[in-house]
Write a structure and sequence with these properties.
2 strands; membrane; about 180 residues; Arp2/3 complex 21 kDa subunit ARPC3
Length: about 180
């Protein structure tokens, strides 16, 4: 129990720290950061439940006003923008990513984690973020995909590969530390 709490807090801090990595701001005003790599790692390393809890804690801390998002943003106001679908989708993305790693018994953990990060960390996230953008903007599907999805895909795919490689290396070095692969997780 205590170990789970510590790991959830640690991965919440990891997501926050990855928001400090120098960002690239698109013309739309939304920054590209490494925070989504943290979301993916929560799922690939911690598993579905712990990963989602770590990300949910991050979202709650942002809502409470902590400036944990790129550019030092935080507070309830960030949840009213067309981009808030990403924040709402973060815990879902971590959960789906973790669930795939837990259920898929492939022997190559790097590949399993990388594919899970693509399906959960990208696919599930955009299934929430794009429709949310369409409603809040309002915008059609084409505009939403071109504005809220397409510019992020190359970086997201790189982050998914990194999540797979990091998880695989961690599993090779210390298999018991990758809780998503533990039989009694």
């Amino acid at each position: 129990m205590e170990r789970n709490v510590v790991l959830i807090a640690l991965f919440t801090a990891l997501i926050a720290a990855l928001g400090l990595v120098p960002k690239l701001t698109l013309a739309s005003g939304i920054p590209i950061t490494a925070q989504s790599l943290g979301i993916m790692l929560c799922g690939t390393v911690l598993g579905a439940k712990r990963g989602a809890l770590a990300v949910l804690l991050f979202v709650v801390l942002v809502a409470a006003g902590l400036p944990l998002l790129a550019g030092g943003r935080g507070g309830l106001g960030v949840f009213t923008t067309p981009w808030a679908g990403f924040y709402y989708g973060f815990p879902i993305a971590a959960f789906v990513t973790g669930l795939i790693v837990e259920k898929w018994n492939g022997s190559n953990v790097s590949v399993v984690a990388g594919v899970a990060a693509v399906i959960g960390g990208i696919g599930a996230l955009y299934l929430v973020a794009v429709p949310y953008y369409m409603v809040m903007k309002p915008a059609g599907l084409g505009e939403a995909v071109l504005t809220a999805m397409a510019p992020f895909m190359p970086g997201d795919l790189i982050k998914a590969v990194l999540a797979g490689l990091i998880t695989g290396a961690l599993y090779k070095a210390r298999p018991s530390s990758v809780l998503s692969r533990a039989k009694a997780a």
